[in-house]
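Exercise 7.
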Amino acid sequence: MEPKEKQEIVARHERRFAGELTEAVLEKPELSVWMILIPFLFIVFMQRQQKFKQLGDTFQRGFMYTKNHALEAAARLVAGASAQTVEEELAQKVRKNPDADAPLQQIYQAQLNEITLLTEHYRRLLSTQAADYAVMVREAYRPDEFQQFLVELAQREHLVNEAAASLNSAPDMTWRDVIKRLEEETILRRKKEADQIFSCNRE
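Solution. The predicted structure, written as tokens, is:
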């Protein structure tokens, strides 16, 4: 299988996960019979629906930001690029404003820390001979190794969220609640997926 094909398998998995996470975390407006019968209510529903879609798109782009950078970096490493070159390229991409103040620099560093972990993870997946995401994971990790990776990933994602929150001296509690639900739902879904991936080894 061509390297680009394996890269797309991993990217497709991450995009699907991000989409399912969005559906689980964000409250989707529900259409009732009254909204259909009363035009004004239906207009309000459509406005809420559009807002939900825009928020969902933004949510997914934010979630995929570090994943996209890491996957591209991993593909470069597998193709033979030096680790130092890839690291320098990532720093340039993530640190968009080198003269930014300390809180923004903290976000940059937290993102780079997450990307570093993900880059190695993706490199391991892309270095397998598998043509399926679950098989890639089983070939790249022992079950306990993968669980440890997920724990560390959750920690680094949390630090990114905390760094982002530091930009606002009085973060909105609704936003805080969404982030909390996001982190909890992410951990639960990844654990469930990991159990499914490795369950065939126990059968």
